[in-house]
Structure formats: C-alpha cells, structure tokens
Amino acid sequence: MDSHDVQADLKHVLYTKEQIQQRIAELAAQIDKDYEGRELLIVGVLKGAVMVMADLARALHSHVSMDWMAVSSYGSGTQSSGVVRILKDLDTDLMGKDVLIVEDIIDSGLTLSWLKTNLESRGTASVEICTAFRKPDAAKVELDVKYVGYDLPNEFVVGYGLDYAEKYRNLEFVGTLAPHVYE
Ligand code: XMP
Ligand code: MG
Cβ(106) to ligand 1 under 6 A? Predict the structure, then answer.
C-alpha cells in the first residue's frame, strides 16, 4: 500500500519507500563488508521484521541463512516490560554461529536486550543487532545496536512491518497515524 491508499488515516509520512530502500542498501553493503568470509545467520523477529528481513536479505551480495523467532513481551498495553516469552524458537543450532538479529523497531530496548542475551547463551560466535528504526528517546537500557536504519521521534508509528491492531504492516513507508484512527 502507498500513502494514497491510506491518506485519510495518516498524520505524517516519516520515511518514504525510497528513503527506506536506500538506507537498507547502505546497511547491506556494510554487513557484506563486516562479515566477509564468514557464514552469517540472520534472525528475524516476527511479525514486524518480515519486511526488513525480505529487503535486507535481497540487498546483500553474500550468502546468508535465515531463521525466525516470535516473542511476546509481558506488560500492560503498548509498554514493553522486558519479561519475554518465546512463542516460536529458532530451528537452527546456534553453536559457533555469527548471528545478526533483524528487528523492525527498538523502543525501550528491553525486548532486544533480553533476546541478545538469550541467543548469546547458546554458544554463538557473535550476536549483533540490525534494526530498521529506533526511538532513541524511549531507551530504557543500554543496548549496543550495530546497524540502525533511521532514528524516529518518540511517537507510535506504523508501516513497513509495524502495525496498529494488525493493520498497516503492508505500507511501503513509515508514518504516524491521525488521532481519529486510535481515539
Ligand atoms: P521494546 O520496548 O522492548 O519493544 O524495545 C519493541 C517492540 O515494541 C513494538 N513497538 C512498536 N510497534 N509501532 C509499532 O507498531 C511503534 O511505534 C512501536 N514501538 C514499539 C514492536 O513490536 C517492537 O518490536
Ligand atoms: Mg517487533
């Protein structure tokens, strides 16, 4: 879907399709370089990371394996608590692997902080993080994120994998919703 399809629901477009694709290509070039000669496993966090996984994987010029996890963060409403439950675990044994976790967005950082520690405990050679978006003003833990697409203001956003009540994931851009949508 493009911005015309959801015009009445939108407040602002924050990053366009072109800007997102440009930044993903830059991140992919950096990842190709950083992992040259190594075997990389990219791990997507369902469901939000589907778009960034698909675009990032295709922008790489190296072979990668792909696997998926689904996690749910306990907490009230939209606030993440840092207590995470695995809904779907990886199919891959991580022993000795170089792993890159791929996320749609880092908000408090609590989910990713937990996930990184969890994967590291499985005997990985390395675990790094790549996220399409990050809200620096929302950070609650210090988290070393090696690859960041774009930093966002501390507002709820949708599109490019991110949903409001399971809608808007299939927007090709990222934006904020008009208040009438959620009020
Ligand atoms: P934490 O706070 O642990 O949470 O970094 C990250 C997860 O929270 C969700 N999230 C959002 N989802 N629009 C969304 O659609 C947003 O603006 C937003 N901020 C956080 C998302 O699931 C992410 O993985
Ligand atoms: Mg997510």
Answer: yes
DSSP run (H or E) holding 46: strand 40-46
Q: What is the pLDDT of residues 65-114, one digit of tens each?
A: 999 999 988 765 666 677 899 999 999 999 999 999 999 999 999 999 99
Bridge partners of 164, per DSSP, are: 167
Q: Which sequence spans correspond to the domains of the chain?
A: 18-154
Domain 18-154 in CATH 3.40.50.2020: yes
Instruction: Report the 10 Å Cβ neighbour count for 53.
Output: 23
pLDDT at 83 (0 to 100): 82
Q: Hey, which residues are catalytic here?
A: 107
Nearest ligand 1 atom to the CA of 162 is 15
